[in-house]
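Section: Multi-chain targets

For targets with more than one molecule, the full set of components is provided together so that the structure can be written out for the assembly as a whole rather than chain by chain. Components appear in the order listed by the source. The example entry contains two components.
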Amino acid sequence: MGKRTFVDFWIKPPDVNVAKEMCKRAFDLGYSTLVVEAPKPMLEELKSSAKEYGLEIYSKAVVSAKTRGDVLKAAAKFRHSYDVLTVYCLTRDAALVALRDGRVDTVVFRPNGFMSFDRHMLSVTRNSIELTLIDTISDRVALQKMRSIVRLIDMKDLSLVFSSCASNPVEQRGPFDVSCIVNVLGLNFERSLDALSTIPLNILLRNRAKLLGKMVQEGVWLAEG
Amino acid sequence: MLKAKYRYVFVRHFPRDVKLDKSEIWKAILSSLQYLVGTLGYADVNPYLVRIQKDLDGIVIRCNSKQVRTLVAAIAMVNNVGGESISLDVRKISGTLKALLKKIN
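Its structure, encoded as tokens over all components, is:
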């Protein structure tokens, strides 16, 4: 088996200088791809400096959704301009739509929003579920809820993406350290590593191909010749 | 009687320019570990701060070899030591102290 490449699926630097520091830190920690939530001009500036470290940068839109309509509007608005679309659900209604909409990549569960799972939600889930390191570290009550979500993910074989959601270099951790945390939360170690490498990488490759027009539909690729 | 197997973990803080007392880092790790896995889990990990004569810019922790991932998780979850916002990075893990020191140097 080849060496894994790791992805930090969500960083949100406040400005370009901090973003550059975060790129350096990510490189030191062993990441090869970063997904950044930032305005477009900042992303362009960041891409050139990330090349120094051999990092690949992808853009991400994170949308808070209270109603079903919010999710649908966001999916129509952002899908074609960002590499990744993540929905942060504040209600169960929004979560139900976001979990099954094909245009949404991940649904993030955070302590201030809606953070529980039921049988109906499990049965409609099609997209990956995203949990963040920053909530694990800073919110000790959320840790218990995360444990129950991770156990359900393990039981029902759903896909999990674990990102840092860091806004400065101090909040970033190495991929091995993060997968150990996911492992302790209840997922087996191989799947914990997948949550930082295979699953996010597949999402990124698929979306990039769609944006470049190389993928016509799910599973239908244009042949190069 | 079976011989206990250990792993030695080398931990360094980030940012490097923050001056911290090693005992404070150790206390933060123990508290994080206790919170994460409780007292029984803590006993399984069996953490021990290895005191080394050489002046290292980090700390070496010994733990039960089967529970090394739990210790690493607890280390990664530390975000504040002595009022300073920092992160602790696991730089190296080894089966013997001699090999670990060789890898660090």
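The first helix of chain B runs from residue 22 to 45.
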